[in-house]
Design goal:
Layout: H1 8-41, E1 42-50, E2 53-56, E3 64-65, E4 71-73, E5 76-80, E6 85-90, E7 95-98, E8 103-108, E9 117-123, E10 125-130, E11 140-143, E12 149-154, E13 161-167, E14 172-178, E15 180-185, E16 188-193, E17 197-199, E18 217-219, E19 224-227, E20 234-238, E21 246-252, E22 260-266, E23 270-273, E24 279-288, E25 294-297, E26 301-306, E27 314-316, E28 321-322, E29 331-336, E30 345-350, E31 358-364, E32 368-372, E33 377-385, E34 391-392, E35 398-402, E36 414-416
Parallel strand pairs: 9-11, 19-26, 28-35, 31-36
Antiparallel strand pairs: 1-4, 1-6, 2-3, 2-5, 5-8, 6-7, 7-10, 8-9, 10-13, 11-12, 12-15, 13-14, 14-17, 15-16, 18-20, 20-23, 21-22, 21-24, 24-25, 24-26, 27-29, 29-32, 30-31, 30-33, 33-34, 33-35
Length: about 425
């Protein structure tokens, strides 16, 4: 039996449907390509934004505010206002955090040059972190004066590396606080160890240390919180350096050190700061060379002087934290904030919220304890200043759950902290 051919009108409908389908497919492909180009154009994203932060887009002639989640394309500028900061995750790998009153431009190098991220620091200070593994798109590049570009990579097996870049009237200082950086510009190579710094504004060919390395701050700890009293005296201390004439100590009201209340030189590796009133203070130290000239300052630390005895200084794990399944044999990190001075802390891990049934106690001066092999079960923990009577650094104990079948806990009830 023969099948009749469709009439002319039916063929026309079929052709229209085919054309429409091809057109839609073409439109979808075009939209997909547009999205791909837009995503490829993103060079960085904002992970955290605090205070007034703005961006100047390449296509705009004005600054506009942004929030966490904002994206940046090659050639965009970012700036932070007073008491503001922002953390930027670079698409090429690593991140930078801009301190207050800082201006940078983010770019992306062309593929022949490696395709990594480029950061041009116009003013202020940026702190960065690079992972141990090689960045897939190429190294992070710092752009200095006259277009000079210095590439930063992490030495193998050196671990994640933390660094800081500061614009000064004389140049652009690059310093390392942890790890080791490998610097390259053309055929020039340099290695920058933790505690050392280099002026990289004019590249590496003429880069020299302008002074001694910076001292490592010791006490108070990072973001220490101290109760205010009229006679309060806060001892500041740092690691001494060999072959230096002395140290320059600065204390200010802001991270940019534009409102300084202490700017003095001392011979030893400590200084007593007398806060005039409650509030936030920031301190840093630099070493003096034989001519009495200060070098690069160490990383600034904040001290919060509060009207009441600080409580709620526990940092991690958060209240109600549940470790991942099967992680009973893994490390659990307990951390808390400093109260200043050189106190001894007492970490208590117990079965009850009142911490009256401790299963583990550790005492010492660090602000962090790592416990291995915490058996499955429900726990509560808190930290005290080891005085008589003990002073709690929390308003209520935090709950911690290690999933799995119930089991025995650590045998020793009292173990010393690592020094």
């Amino acid at each position: 039996m023969s099948v009749p051919l469709p009439r002319r009108g039916a063929w026309g409908c079929i052709l229209l449907l085919l054309v429409a389908g091809c057109s839609r497919t073409s439109e979808d492909e075009g939209a997909s390509e547009t999205v791909s180009r837009e995503l490829a154009a993103i060079v960085a994203t904002c992970a955290v934004a605090r205070g007034p932060v703005d961006t100047l887009r390449t296509a705009n002639a004005y600054w506009e505010p942004f929030e966490a989640g904002a994206t940046f394309r090659s050639g965009d500028w970012v700036r932070t206002g007073p008491e503001a900061s922002t953390r930027i995750e670079l698409r090429g790998g690593g991140r930078i955090e801009l301190e207050e009153r800082t201006v940078v431009m983010v770019e992306r190098t062309a593929p022949p040059a490696g395709g990594g991220s480029v950061v041009a620091l116009e003013s202020g200070t940026a702190r960065g972190l690079l992972p141990e593994d090689a960045l897939p798109d190429g190294p992070l590049v710092l752009r200095g004066d006259n277009g000079r570009q210095v590439a930063l990579t992490v030495e193998a097996h050196a671990g994640p590396t933390e660094f800081r870049v500061t614009r000064t009237a004389r140049g652009m200082h690059l310093s390392v606080s942890r790890g080791r950086l490998l610097l390259s510009e053309g055929t020039n190579r340099r290695t920058l160890e933790a505690g050392n710094w280099l002026d990289v504004a004019r590249g590496l060919e003429d880069a020299e240390h302008d002074g001694p390395p910076f001292p490592t701050s010791l006490s108070p700890g990072v973001d220490a919180r101290i109760a205010w009293r009229p006679e309060l005296r806060i001892p500041l201390s740092w690691k001494p350096l060999e072959g230096v004439r002395g140290y320059q100590v600065q204390v200010a009201r802001d991270m940019g050190f534009t409102r300084r209340i202490v700017d003095t030189q001392v011979e030893g590796s400590d200084f007593t700061f007398v806060p005039p009133e409650p509030g936030m203070f920031v301190w840093r130290v630099s070493a003096l060379d034989e001519a009495g000239r200060p070098g690069e300052s160490g990383f600034a630390r904040r001290v919060f002087v509060e009207r009441k005895q600080p409580r709620g200084l526990l940092v991690t794990p958060p209240d109600g934290y549940q470790a991942p399944n099967g992680s009973a044999s893994e490390d659990v990190v307990f951390a808390w904030q400093s109260i200043g001075g050189e106190p001894r802390y007492r970490l208590v891990v117990a079965r009850d919220r009142e911490l009256r049934q401790p299963v583990l106690v550790r005492e010492g001066s660090p602000q962090q304890v790592v416990l291995s092999g915490l058996a499955p079960g429900e726990y509560f923990w808190g930290v005290y200043v080891a005085e008589d009577p003990p002073v709690p650094l929390f308003q209520k104990a935090r709950r911690l759950v290690v999933p799995g079948p119930s089991g025995s806990l650590a045998r020793d009830a009292l173990l010393p902290m690592d020094p």
